[in-house]
Amino acid sequence: MNKPKILFPSKASSSKEMHDYIYSKKLKDIDWKKGKAFCLVYYPGDDRAKLIKEIYDLYFSDNALNPTATPSLAELEAETVSMCADLFNGDENVRGNLTTGGTESILLAVKTARDWARKHKPNINKPNVVLPVSAHPAFMKAFHYFNIDFIPVELGIDYRADAKAMRNAINKDTIMLVGSAPSYPHGLLDPISEIAAIAKEKNILCHVDACIGGFMLPFIKKLGYPISEFDFFIDGVTSISTDIHKYGYSSKGSSVILYKNAEIRKFQFSIYTKWNGGVYGSPTMTGTRAGGSIAGAWAALNAIGMDGYLEMANATMEATNKLKAAIKSIKELNIIGEPDMSIIAFYSNKLDVFKLADILNKKGWHFERQQLPASLHFTLNYIHRLVIDDFIKDLIESVELAKKFSIDSFANNLQTKTVKGLSKILPSGTIAKFKKSGSASPIKKENTAAMYGMLGALSGTDDLEEIVLDFLDKINSVK
Ligand SMILES: *Cc1c(COP(=O)(O)O)cnc(C)c1O
Fold first, then answer.
1. Residue among 216, 243, 251 to mutate when testing ligand 1 (max atoms within 8 A of CB)
2. What values do phi and psi take at 378, rounded to 5?
3. pLDDT at residue 424, as a whole number
4. Which of 37, 270, 324, 451 could be cross-linked to 366 through a Cys-Cys bond (beta carbons 3.0 to 4.6 Å apart)?
């Protein structure tokens, strides 16, 4: 039997040893501090980050699990929830909690809906949720965890949720509708008023996923951008998720789940009264709750404030508008829909966007590759005001280069089509095995265009699931 590759440390390391080791590793990571990443990280600048971190550090070891032990954290949490309720046009009845992220907020919203329906709609046997196909996969995770069916509904031609189609998808077992504010893939606000009105009419719940937009939409609306209502201003909205660790610019590990009132939130809580350890009540999914994240969330709202968020949102939108104009002026690229805030996705009928992505990656830029349709996704934040002109220059250059690869991408297309054809005729699992045994690792740094083309072709198949499971296993193991 071989031992694991990295052994348990036999003694303490020095600060220098650890720093050297970490810094050498960290060189491989995206350089978000230089604005190179249009995804994953949101940075409010050194001064604001320092202040938020100071407050976070005060609670580095504290555990918010038992509010009688750390009443200060319970208060900071309740205050943060109240500030968010205010931001989203809620009244004093709104209740909520801080969570570790958008996913936990969504898991809780779905679990709450399930348990709400058990009480209020006892005739439902197998509950389902109706949502647009652009809704975040955190929902599918929740449905899987909590054994709930879901009915995904195609988008309208404007790439927003199609409220009419959602209405038609509802059946007697539907317990909740979902809309995004905005959707992550395309940055488009779903017609929340219409969706919420349907939910109210049908006497079911309506969740608004404002994970990415919650700390942008209210501010850019104030700045004069045309943003339709999406929050508790609308009567039928019963819960909202919003991530402070995205455009709230707090430390990672903080999101908010809000409910219209205490009666709904009660279905979120977990209680066990017969344990030897005493009566156990816990508001969210985790047991131990990181004090730092709660204090950090509170600190972000207070360290930045309305004026700070307005300033950052304004700068972010100025950078976004520049990028939008640049993309519109490049005739090979088409923006998907009419983005409402600082997320832009584009596709192309004239060049292979994944080839373009490879070229931009080589220039040090990071962003997301998307499918259905094949597109590139850019989430801009405050930091991008400093680099957007450089990026636009590189984008224009890279488009010219990508056009030269038309023959290459033709080969990719051919490969994609072949794979697509094969996946239809070969027994399920064959292509996954073929991929595994081949030399091509799931993620190749240099030329990913062919691979992404293939993944797109396999979307929704068992083969792709196997490839991704294998990839997750590899990436979550020591090299
Ligand atoms: C990021 C995001 C989520 C998930 O949030 P995590 O913090 O990554 O768990 C859910 N919905 C939308 C729209 C998002 O942008």
1. 243
2. -125, 120
3. 52
4. 37
**Ligand 1 center–CA 102 separation, angstroms:** 4
Pocket of ligand 1 (CB under 6 A): 101-103, 106, 136, 138, 180, 184, 209, 211-212, 243, 255
Q: What is the DSSP string of 413-433?
A: HHHHHHHHHHHHHSPTTHHHH
Give, as one character, the DSSP assignment of residue 43. -
**Bridge partners of residue 290, in order along the sequence:** 63
Residues 382, 316: contact at Cβ < 8 Å? Answer: yes
262, 263, 268, 271 alpha-carbon torsion, rounded to 10°: 100
Q: Best of 38, 103, 245 to mutate for ligand 1, by most ligand atoms within 8 A of CB?
A: 103
pLDDT < 50: residue spans in the chain? 434, 436-444
Global pTM reads: 0.91
Output the pLDDT for position 410.
53
pLDDT of residue 451: 76
Structural tokens at position 2:
């071989």
The Cα 184–Cα 229 span in angstroms is 18
* Residue of 272, 243, 302 lying closest to 42 (CA atoms): 243
Which pLDDT score, from 0 to 100, does residue 477 have?
87
Rounded to the nearest integer, the mean pLDDT of the chain is 92
Report the SS3 class of residue 475: helix
For residue 63, the SS3 value is strand
Pinpoint the alpha helices (H) of 205-290. Answer: 217-222, 262-265
Ligand 1, atom 12: closest residue by C-alpha: 211
- Under 8 Å between Cβ of 113 and 167: no
Amino acid at 96: G
Predicted confidence (pLDDT) per residue in 381-423, tens digit: 999 999 999 999 999 999 999 998 765 555 556 556 555 555 5
Amino acid at 36: K
Residue pair 204/174 in contact by the 8 Å Cβ criterion: yes
Angle, CA of 12, 13 and 15, to the nearest 5°: 130
Q: Which of 38, 40, 180, 212 to mutate to test the pocket of ligand 1 (most atoms within 8 A of CB)?
A: 212
* Atom number in ligand 1 closest to CA 106: 10
**Structural domains for the chain:** 55-301 (3.40.640.10), 407-475 (no CATH)
Place of tokens 């590139």: 376
**Gap from CA of 197 to ligand 1 centroid (Å):** 24
Strands 255-259 and 239-243, sheet pairing? antiparallel
